[in-house]
Amino acid sequence: MTKTHFGFETVDEETKAQRVAGVFSSVATKYDIMNDLMSVGLHRVWKRFTIDIAAPRPGERVLDIAGGTADLSLAFARRVGTQTETGGQVWLTDINNAMLSVGRNRLLDAGVIAPVAQCDAEKLPFPDNYFDIVSVAFGLRNMTHKEQALSEMLRVLRPGGRLLVLEFSKVWAPLEKIYDSYSFKLLPWLGEKIAGDAASYRYLAESIRMHPDQAALKAMMEQTGFERVNVFNLTAGVVALHRGYKF
Length: 247
Known about the structure:
Elements: E1 3-6, E2 9-12, H1 13-27, H2 31-39, H3 42-54, E3 61-65, H4 71-80, E4 89-94, H5 97-109, E5 116-118, E6 131-137, H6 146-156, E7 157-168, H7 176-195, H8 198-210, H9 214-224, E8 227-234, E9 239-245
């Protein structure tokens, strides 16, 4: 069986999918609280920047992949409008049912009626050339076959459409030691105290180190077929936003 990484471990591909599912099922109900604590609220700034760079317009169709608790879906919906108002659509999708349930409920609580689908980013159940915008925030690094997922994102985008990938990346070199200490000591401690799950947040820190850095992800997107790929480093490279277009 083909091997891949689960954090720093080498595991079978099937095992990785099961263990990633276990991580997010475990943390789903505490996911938003932990995001606020881990980033000192900065994840909200990063996501707001992503929306601004995506520049959604009324009536556009948006696919939010690995949308989890619906931060981006909710913000997109407020920009593109609803099907009945403007013709706009925002699809909230995630492979994990526990995360998707939290996101669906959050949309409903906000009065937003949006389609929701549990699906695998590597096998998207949508037609070719359908969406104006595809987004994935803090989800790509958990995907086993990133190139396949990116190919699917390219396929479902219409010509002229854009992909936004918001993901942890390689921090500025002078901050590496401080960031490592924070990642491997404080994060698991917070995970244990708040979510009752230190192991999932240890995996988070490890998965960030195994994810392609800014230049490597840009090259991967270009090799997939995206053009005019731009990279925006946020918070000294702790996070990077990649934007690419389909032409």
